[in-house]
Structures are given as C-alpha cells and as structure tokens.
Amino acid sequence: MPGVCTLTIIRECIGKILSKSVSFATIKECKYVSVLIPEEGLKLIINLTLSADGGVKAVVERVSDNQIALKLKASLKQ
C-alpha cells in the first residue's frame, strides 16, 4: 500500500476520534518498517497517542502477524 494511503487512513482515524476534520501540520518522523500489501482481509491496528498541544504518535501494525509497518510522529491542525 503506498505510504500516502497509510497516512490518509491514520489522519481519517484521528479525525473520527476527535469528531473533527484534521490534517498534518508537520511530520517529524515517518518510518516505514515493513511493506503493507493491499489484500483481501488486511486488518491493521493503529495505536495513537494524542497530546494536548496537537502532537500525535502512531504505530501501525498488521493484525495477522503483529509486525510493525509504520511509526509516525507528527502534529495536527484543524
């Protein structure tokens, strides 16, 4: 799955959690640890840590093997 698609999924999940539209203001770190191959039944675990100052940390893992696919540190804007 292209990296931009993964970032879009994370951004949309954060928006749903916060019940508002958000976008990335800055991306301090975005490390793709392994490839996500789009396939039927692909399930992801997205662990988010949100801070009061708009910061976000995300770790994305595949459910099937709990292998980390992406680590992200960014800040958000509304």
Key phrases:
single chain, 4 strands, alpha+beta, four-stranded antiparallel beta sheet, 78 residues
Structure description:
With 78 residues, this protein is α+β, with helices and mostly antiparallel strands. Helix content is 21%, strand content 45%. It has one helix and four strands. The protein has a four-stranded antiparallel beta sheet. Strand 2 and strand 3 form a beta hairpin.
**Rounded Rg:** 12 Å
Which segments are poorly predicted (pLDDT under 50) over 5 or more consecutive residues?
none
User: Which band does the percent of strand residues land in?
Assistant: 35-45%
The main β sheet shows up as: 4 strands, antiparallel
Query: What sort of overall outline do the alpha carbons produce when their principal axes are compared?
Result: globular
Mean of residue pLDDT? 85
Spell out the helices and strands N to C: HEEEE
Q: Could you tell me how far the N terminus lies from the C terminus, measured between alpha carbons in angstroms?
A: 26 Å
- The beta-strand count equals 4
Total helix count? Answer: 1
In brief, what are we looking at here?
With 78 residues, the protein is an alpha+beta fold. Helices cover 21% and strands 45% of the residues. A hairpin with a 5-residue loop joins strand 3 and strand 4.
